[in-house]
Amino acid sequence: MVRRTEWPGDSPDSSRAEKELSPQDPAERARAICLRLLTGTPRTRKQLADALRKREVPDEVAEEVLSRFEDVGLIDDAAFAGAWVESRHHGRGLARRALARELRTKGVDAELIDEAVGRLDSDQEEETARVLVARKLRATRGLDRDRRLRRLAGMLARKGYPEGMALRVVRQALEAEGEDTDDLPHEGF
């Protein structure tokens, strides 16, 4: 049986527990909170700032601690964005649009988002879409052609693929299976 270590912050009374267990110095408390959060997974500066605000660390102390963590490389939003794009594109098949949306919710700067998602080119994105459709294609066999088109294109749309690319990839996959796609729209669902 694996035992999980309980950390301050795991329970509903987390802020009270942290105040009791943490040093009285707000800067020391802020450093402890950030280090604990960074131990589990990389975080953006905004995510850490939100966590410190939630735990009532004064803004000026939080700013000082976060700046120091950035200076020493413990917080690096550009590296976070690059790793996020790489991981989520290859692991989940997400397209640039969906990746950018996720990074925005994590508080990554727009320039850094553009740089990170810009590393994926259209050919790479389209190839990933083809792989996703190929995986799902078998599960749609037996359905009528229009239903297959909607399911497969809808799956790509939910992953952030542009409509035109989604339709093109699905049409090509259906044609490769011998489906007649001449009467299907080239754009729009």
UniProtKB/TrEMBL annotation:
Region (Disordered): 1-28
Gene3D superfamilies in the cross-refs: Winged helix-like DNA-binding domain superfamily/Winged helix DNA-binding domain (1.10.10.10)
Chief location category: cytoplasm
Residues covered by the RecX first three-helical domain: 30-68
Keyword ATP-binding: no
Domain of life assignment: Bacteria
Compartmental location: Cytoplasm
A Pfam family hit: RecX_HTH2
Residue ranges of domain RecX second three-helical in the record: 76-116
GO cellular component: cytoplasm
Domain RecX third three-helical: 125-169
SUPFAM superfamilies attached to this UniProt entry: RuBisCo, C-terminal domain
GO molecular function: magnesium ion binding
GO biological process: regulation of DNA repair
Keywords: Cytoplasm
InterPro entries documented for this protein: RecX_HTH_1st (IPR053926), RecX_HTH_2nd (IPR053924), RecX_HTH_3rd (IPR053925), Regulatory_RecX (IPR003783), RuBisCO_lsu_C_sf (IPR036376), WH-like_DNA-bd_sf (IPR036388)
Keyword Ubl conjugation: no
Database matches in NCBIfam families: PRK00117.5-1
Entry's family note: Belongs to the RecX family.
Function comment: Modulates RecA activity.
Name of the protein this chain belongs to: Regulatory protein RecX
Record gene name: recX
